[in-house]
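Re: that backbone. C-alpha cells:
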C-alpha cells in the first residue's frame, strides 16, 4: 500500500505520496458516479436530472407541437403583430417607399443572420425549455446566459404590452368615439388602460389553460390574418378613389379635415418614393425620423424567437426551429414588401401620416381589418406572454438567481408554469402604463436586438474557437453571418435610441457582474461556457508567441512551484506564496509514491484551490520515490515559457503538523474535505514517522540547484496570521539578512542570492496587506582591521573587508528599494565567533580532507556558532512579520560523506532558524534585478 510521504513535520509542504484510499472507498466512488452501463444509458439523451433523462414518448414529456403549429404559426403571427395592419402605413407615409424597403431589407438581413445563428445552435444538441435563454446560457455560460435571458424575458414582456396596446388602439378606432362601426366604448387614458387589462387577463386565462390551446389558437388566427391580408391586397387593386375622415384622436389636424385615397396612381407613387417625415399624433406630436420608423418596424418583426421560446413543447426542436422560423421569415417578408408597394401606389403620404387605420375604410368589407387587427395583436401578445413565462421558468429551474425564484418551480402544474405566467402578466400590466405604442416599440426593439446580439455572439464565439463538438446540422451559416448579424444589431440599437441602447447594455453588464459574483447556481459547470473555449484558443496562441529566448531580466517575475505534502497543514504558506507570486505562475505540486492513480485526486486539489481562494494551478504526479517525483514536477510543470523558476519547500523538522481545517480559530477551517467520515488529505499525527528521510530531502535541495532553479525553504509559517499582521501595531517589519552565515564575507553582500532574496522581500512589501510594514536590511560588519587573520590548522582566512554603509545605500537607491539599513557588529567583536564561522566555510566548501570537519568537536562548535547567530536574529525579530535569510548551498549528492553532511546541514539550519517568526531561507541562482532603464 502506498503511504503518504512527508518532508516537513511543521508544514507538510514538501512533496508527498498520500496514503492510498482503501478499496471500500474506491468502491464507494464507483457507486457514486455509476457504472459504465449507467453512463451508456445516458449518452445522447435530452437534458434532465444530472443533465440527462431517458428517451421517452413525446406525449409523456409534454412535447406535442409540430413545425407548423409550434414554430411557423407563432413566428409568422409575432412578425405581423400590430405592424401589418396598423403601422406599415405610418412607416411608408413618413420614410417613403425607398427608405421603407431599405429598412425592411436591413431588418430582415439582421433577422436572417440571427436566424442562421439560432438554427446553428439549436441543431447542435437537444434544446430544452427557455428557447433563446437556454441556447445562450448553454453556450456563453451562466453569467451571459442569465443576464441575456433576463433581458429577453423583459423584451417579451414589453412585446406583449406593445401588442395589447395596438389591440386597444384598434378597438378605440372601431368602437370608440367616432369609431367606424359604433361609438359605445368610452375613451380616455384610464379607459384604455382598463381595456388593456381586460385583454391581458384574457391572455392570462389562455396561458393558464396551456400551450396546446395556444398552438391550436395560433393556427386558427394565422388563417384569419392571412385571409384578411389577402382581402387588403384585393382592396388596393379594386377600390377606387375615396375620402377618408380624420381619426378623433388626431388633434394635429383641424376638425372636419378629410383625407384622400387615390387608388392605383403613378403620381401617388412618385409622391411616396422619398422621405417626408411628419409628426406622430399618438405621441403628443413628436417629430418622426428614421430612428422612429425603424424602431416601430423592427419592433413589429422581432418575433423570430417565438418558435424557439416554445422549444419545451416541440416534438423535435432541432428540426422544427430552423424550418419553421426560416419559412415564416420568408412568408412575412414577401407579405410586407407587397403591402408597402401597394400602399405607396394608392395612398397619399398625408393620409398615411394622419390615419394609421386607413386600411379599414378602403377595404371592400371593413370588418375584415378589424378582425385582422384584433386577432393578430392578440396572438402576438399571447405568444410573448407564453414565451416570457417559459423563460422565467427556465431561469428559476437553473437557479440563476438562487433560491429566490424557487416558488416559480413549485408553482408549476402539469408542466404549465402557473406562477411564471401570473408574474409575466403582472409585469405586462406595469408596462401598459406607458400608453404610447410607438414609445413601447422602441424599448421593445432595443431589448430584442440585445438578445439577438447575444445569440450572434454565442454562435460567432463557438465557431471561431473551432470546438470539435460544434457540428450543427444546419450548415447555412459562417462566422461572417454571425459577425454581420452582431454588428448590425449593435449599430441599429443605437440608431433606434442611443439612450435605451446604452441603458440596456449597462443593465446587461451589471447583471453579468452580479451573477458572476453572487449566483449560487450549481449546474453552470455542466453547461460549459464559451469563455473557456475562447480562453483556450487565445492562451494557446499567446503561449506559442511567448518565446523563452526573448526573456529579459527587466520583466522578470517569480514563477513559483510550491511542493506540498499535506494541504491541511500548510494553508498559511499556500496563502503567503499566492501573495509572493506577483502575477506570475503559481503551481502547487504534489507527489504520490506508487502507480495507483486516484481519478478523484485532481478534483480534490481543485476544490482545495477554490477553498483557499488562491490563483494557482495544481500538478499531481506519481513516482517510485519522492525525489523522482519532484524531478518530474520541476521538469514538466508549466508550459512553454511559463515554467517555474523558483521551487519552494517546507522545512524538515520534527514539529507536529497543525490541521488548519479543524482548528477552531483558523480562517481556513472547513468540513468540506471529509467523504464518508474519512478525511481527505491525510496528515502526519503524533508518533508517526516521516515517510522521507533527511538524506532524500537534502538530495532534493541539491537537485533543485543543479537544475538551475531558485530555492526557498519555509519554516514557522504555521505562525503566520495575515489578519493579525494587518491589524497589529506591534508587527512593523520585513527583515532581510543578506549574509551567508555559513561563509560570512562582506566584500559585497549583494551577490545573486542576496539580490534575489531582496527582490522577494520587495514583492511581498508591495501588496496592500503588507505595504504598511517597513523593509529592513541588516548589514553585518567585521572590525575595522583590513587583514587580521586567524590561524587554524595549516591555513589562514583573511578577515572580511568592510562593506561601506554608503555603498549599500547607493546600491539600494539604484535598485529603487526603500529600506532601513541596520548594522550588526557582533561578528567583528568576537574572535571565537569568527573562528567558528571558519569551520562552516570549510564545511560548505566540502574540502577533500573533511575528516576533522565532521568531528563531534567541530560540529558542537558549529552548532554553538549557529545558536549565537540565531540569538542575534531573534533579538532583532520581535516586531518582524517575515524574515528572509541567506541559504547556503546544500552538500553535493556525489560527496563521499554526503549522508553525514546532510544531517549536519539540516541540524545547522534548524539551530539557525529556531524560535524565529515565519522565515524563508533563500538561495537564488539567477539575476532578477536591473539598475538601468
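Recovered sequence:
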Amino acid at each position: 500500500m502506498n503511504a503518504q510521504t512527508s518532508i516537513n513535520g511543521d508544514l507538510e509542504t514538501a512533496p508527498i505520496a498520500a496514503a492510498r484510499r482503501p478499496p471500500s472507498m474506491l468502491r464507494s466512488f464507483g457507486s457514486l458516479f455509476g457504472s459504465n452501463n449507467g453512463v451508456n444509458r445516458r449518452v445522447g439523451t435530452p437534458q434532465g436530472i444530472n443533465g440527462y433523462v431517458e428517451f421517452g414518448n413525446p406525449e409523456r414529456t409534454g412535447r406535442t407541437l409540430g413545425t407548423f403549429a409550434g414554430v411557423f404559426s407563432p413566428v409568422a403571427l409575432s412578425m405581423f403583430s400590430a405592424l401589418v395592419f396598423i403601422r406599415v402605413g405610418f412607416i411608408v407615409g413618413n420614410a417613403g417607399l425607398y427608405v421603407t424597403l431599405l429598412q425592411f431589407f436591413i431588418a430582415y438581413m439582421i433577422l436572417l443572420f440571427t436566424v442562421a445563428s439560432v438554427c446553428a445552435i439549436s441543431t447542435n444538441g437537444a434544446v430544452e425549455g427557455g428557447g433563446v435563454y437556454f441556447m445562450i446560457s448553454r453556450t456563453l455560460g451562466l453569467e451571459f446566459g442569465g443576464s441575456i435571458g433576463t433581458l429577453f424575458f423583459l423584451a417579451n414582456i414589453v412585446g406583449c404590452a406593445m401588442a395589447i396596446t395596438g389591440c386597444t388602439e384598434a378597438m378605440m378606432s372601431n368602437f370608440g368615439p367616432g369609431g367606424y362601426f359604433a361609438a359605445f366604448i368610452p375613451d380616455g387614458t384610464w379607459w384604455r388602460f382598463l381595456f388593456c387589462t381586460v385583454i391581458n387577463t384574457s391572455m392570462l386565462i389562455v396561458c393558464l389553460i396551456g400551450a396546446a390551446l395556444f398552438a391550436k389558437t395560433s393556427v386558427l388566427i394565422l388563417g384569419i390574418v392571412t385571409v384578411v391580408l389577402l382581402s387588403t391586397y384585393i382592396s388596393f387593386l379594386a377600390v377606387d378613389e375615396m375620402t377618408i375622415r380624420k381619426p378623433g384622436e388626431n388633434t394635429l389636424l383641424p376638425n372636419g379635415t378629410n383625407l384622400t385615397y387615390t387608388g392605383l396612381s403613378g403620381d401617388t407613387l412618385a409622391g411616396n418614393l422619398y422621405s417626408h417625415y411628419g409628426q406622430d399624433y399618438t405621441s403628443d406630436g413628436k417629430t418622426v425620423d428614421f430612428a422612429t420608423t425603424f424602431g416601430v418596424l423592427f419592433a413589429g418583426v422581432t418575433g423570430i424567437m417565438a418558435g424557439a421560446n416554445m422549444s419545451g413543447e416541440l416534438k423535435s426542436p432541432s428540426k422544427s426551429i430552423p424550418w419553421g422560423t426560416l419559412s415564416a421569415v420568408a412568408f412575412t417578408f414577401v407579405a410586407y414588401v407587397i403591402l408597402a408597394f401597394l400602399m405607396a401606389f394608392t395612398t397619399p403620404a398625408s393620409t398615411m401620416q394622419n390615419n394609421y387605420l386607413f386600411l379599414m375604410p378602403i377595404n371592400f368589407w371593413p370588418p375584415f381589418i378589424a378582425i385582422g387587427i384584433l386577432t393578430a395583436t392578440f396572438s402576438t401578445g399571447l405568444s410573448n406572454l407564453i414565451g416570457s413565462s417559459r423563460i422565467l421558468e427556465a431561469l428559476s429551474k437553473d437557479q440563476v438567481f438562487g433560491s429566490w425564484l424557487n416558488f416559480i418551480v413549485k408553482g408549476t402544474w402539469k408542466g404549465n408554469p402557473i406562477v411564471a405566467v401570473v408574474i409575466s402578466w403582472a409585469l405586462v400590466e406595469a408596462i401598459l402604463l406607458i400608453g404610447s405604442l410607438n414609445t413601447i416599440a422602441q424599448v421593445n426593439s432595443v431589448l430584442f436586438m440585445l438578445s439577438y446580439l447575444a445569440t450572434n455572439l454565442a454562435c460567432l464565439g463557438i465557431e471561431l474557437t473551432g470546438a470539435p463538438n460544434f457540428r450543427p446540422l444546419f450548415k447555412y451559416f459562417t462566422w461572417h453571418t454571425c459577425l454581420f448579424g452582431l454588428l448590425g444589431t449593435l449599430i441599429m440599437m443605437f440608431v433606434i435610441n442611443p439612450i435605451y441602447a446604452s441603458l440596456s447594455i449597462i443593465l446587461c453588464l451589471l447583471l453579468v457582474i452580479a451573477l458572476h459574483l453572487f449566483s449560487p447556481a450549481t449546474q453552470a459547470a455542466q453547461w460549459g461556457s464559451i469563455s473557456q473555449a475562447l480562453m483556450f484558443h487565445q492562451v494557446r496562441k499567446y503561449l506559442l508567441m511567448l518565446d523563452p529566448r526573448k526573456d529579459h531580466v527587466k520583466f522578470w517575475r517569480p514563477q513559483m512551484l510550491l511542493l506540498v505534502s499535506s494541504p491541511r497543514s500548510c494553508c498559511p504558506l499556500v496563502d503567503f506564496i499566492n501573495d509572493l507570486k506577483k502575477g506570475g505562475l503559481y503551481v502547487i505540486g504534489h507527489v504520490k509514491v506508487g502507480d495507483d492513480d486516484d481519478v478523484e485526486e485532481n478534483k480534490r486539489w481543485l476544490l482545495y484551490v477554490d477553498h483557499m481562494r488562491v490563483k494557482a494551478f495544481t500538478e499531481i504526479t506519481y513516482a517510485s520515490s519522492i525525489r523522482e517525483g519532484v524531478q518530474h514536477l520541476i521538469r514538466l510543470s508549466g508550459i512553454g515559457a511559463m515554467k517555474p523558476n523558483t521551487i519552494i519547500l517546507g522545512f524538515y523538522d520534527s514539529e507536529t503538523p497543525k490541521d488548519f481545517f479543524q482548528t477552531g480559530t483558523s480562517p481556513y477551517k472547513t468540513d468540506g474535505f471529509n467523504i464518508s467520515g474519512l478525511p481527505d488529505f491525510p496528515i502526519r499525527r503524533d508518533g508517526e514517522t516521516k515517510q522521507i528521510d533527511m538524506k532524500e530531502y537534502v538530495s532534493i535541495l541539491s537537485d533543485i540547484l543543479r537544475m538551475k532553479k531558485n530555492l526557498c525553504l519555509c519554516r514557522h509559517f504555521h505562525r503566520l496570521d495575515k489578519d493579525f499582521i494587518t491589524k497589529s501595531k506591534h508587527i512593523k517589519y520585513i527583515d532581510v539578512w543578506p549574509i551567508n552565515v555559513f561563509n560570512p564575507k562582506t566584500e559585497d553582500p549583494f551577490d545573486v542570492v542576496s539580490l534575489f532574496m531582496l527582490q522577494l522581500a520587495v514583492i511581498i512589501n508591495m501588496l496592500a496587506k503588507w505595504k504598511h510594514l517597513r523593509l529592513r536590511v541588516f548589514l553585518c560588519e567585521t572590525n575595522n582591521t583590513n587583514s587580521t587573520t586567524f590561524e587554524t590548522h595549516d591555513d589562514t582566512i583573511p578577515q572580511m573587508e568592510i562593506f561601506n554603509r554608503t555603498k549599500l545605500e547607493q546600491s539600494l537607491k539604484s535598485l529603487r528599494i526603500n529600506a532601513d539599513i541596520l548594522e550588526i557588529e557582533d561578528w567583528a567583536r568576537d574572535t571565537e565567533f569568527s573562528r567558528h564561522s571558519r569551520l562552516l566555510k570549510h564545511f560548505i566548501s566540502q574540502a577533500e580532507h573533511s575528516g576533522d570537519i565532521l568531528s563531534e568537536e567541530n560540529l558542537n562548535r558549529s552548532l554553538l556558532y549557529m545558536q549565537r547567530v540565531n540569538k542575534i536574529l531573534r533579538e532583532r525579530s520581535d516586531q518582524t512579520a517575515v524574515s528572509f535569510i541567506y541559504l547556503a548551498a546544500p552538500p553535493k549528492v556525489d560527496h563521499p560523506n554526503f549522508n553525514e553532511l546532510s544531517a549536519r546541514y539540516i541540524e545547522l539550519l534548524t539551530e539557525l532558524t529556531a524560535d524565529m517568526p515565519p522565515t524563508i531561507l533563500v538561495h537564488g541562482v539567477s539575476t532578477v534585478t536591473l539598475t538601468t532603464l
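The CA atoms of residues 547 and 641 lie 6 Å apart. The two ends are 57 Å apart (CA to CA).
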